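Field: COMPLEX_INPUT
Field: COMPONENT_COUNT = two
Field: RESIDUE_TOTAL = 463
Field: MODE = joint
Values follow.
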Amino acid sequence: MTIDLNTCTGCNACVVACQSENNIPIVGKDQIMRGREMSWIRLDRYYSSGDPIENRTSLPSDPQTSLMPVACMHCERAPCEQVCPVNATVHDEQGLNVMAYNRCVGTRYCANNCPYKVRRFNFFDYNKRARDQFYLGPLGVNQFKTEGGILKSMQRNPDVTVRMRGVMEKCTYCVQRIEQAKIAQKVKARDSNDIHVPDGVFKVACQAACPSEAIVFGDISNPESAVSKSKANDRDYSLLGYLNTRPRTTYLGRLRNPNPQMPDYKPDALSRMEYKAMQPQSL
Amino acid sequence: MSKTYGILALFESAPAIYQAAKKVRSAGYTKWDVFTPFPVHGLDGAMGIKRSKVPVFTFIGGLMGFTLGMTIVWYMGYLDYPLIVGGMPYYSPVFPFPVAYELTILLAAFGTLIGMFTLNKLPMHYHPVMNYEKFRHLTDDKFAVVIEAEDELFNESEVRELFAGLHPTEITVITEEEKA
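Field: COMPLEX_OUTPUT
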């Protein structure tokens, strides 16, 4: 997967699409304030103004916003996998970092070791309990047995597991869509044995929802695929790549025009080196 | 029916048994033993007993433990249920080292114990010298040398002559019941 930060407008469509595709529960304000949000893809925002000295003393009056959608990177050398005592999160042979919900015992070591902080833990039975009854536990009403709860459960995507309390979850790269595409290709191939899924026959949920087509997903082992071509771009970089996690999701860096003749020009810090050079020497 | 097991010479002190053991050894006997109520320092040297073979059992046990530990991890991680965890190899000799190390120590200890019991022919509930009427003194205040009848050089008069030269308290023939 690649995400083009140049075209991303920060519309949050990917976040909503992921939420509906992957049966991600809505946990409510109280849980969000405790840092227990469940969204698998989030939109990071970084604010900066043209004046680095003003940045230190006050909130910038006219900040520039940099946006970055962050989901599980499916790292090749995944730090989360190394710390799982029960091997509940491992790689499959197609390169996905997959979660075995049944194997997970909820130690949350993986979330602690994830440098991207994209793993989400089910602190409560978010699907089974009403939002005001999380803390009642088994004393609360089982939503799966109420009429309204049954109706609500019909909203769920039948291809995706509804997770229970005590398991970790995260972006799966919409593994259900990948598998459906593979099965469809196998049906189509029949005896010809041509089971290689062609590029672009399916889209993951966030990719399908992205209005600016900033997200590209595909088979990186195929050099002709759109995602391979996108990764070949000069702007391609890995988030926290210096940690040697080898993320599968890479970003195409955002470009700005630093020409002072431009009408909307601001003396922005465009790199860490420039930012340091702009700092007052006394500090 | 009883047969001769060997000839016993009884001594009163540790230096006497030490000298006696030296003499018996230099006379060329191979199947003989010394009975003392406590360990006498240097007696094994005087008897010409070679270094114990227990370390061989220890080494074999340790080697088996190390191999077992490595094999368990290799079988599970590489053969039976390979999982790609964090891009690591299925098997490497580095990470299962603690397992192999612990099993090395465990099986080495078992090997030592088994080796000690085997080489000492333990548990031994009967020994022909127990038929000697003063046997209980051998665990208290007396010392004895026994030359077994099975020794190739065994000759009753020669053994008696040798023992007489050592001035023991008494010389006795030990008999044992023949197995039916």
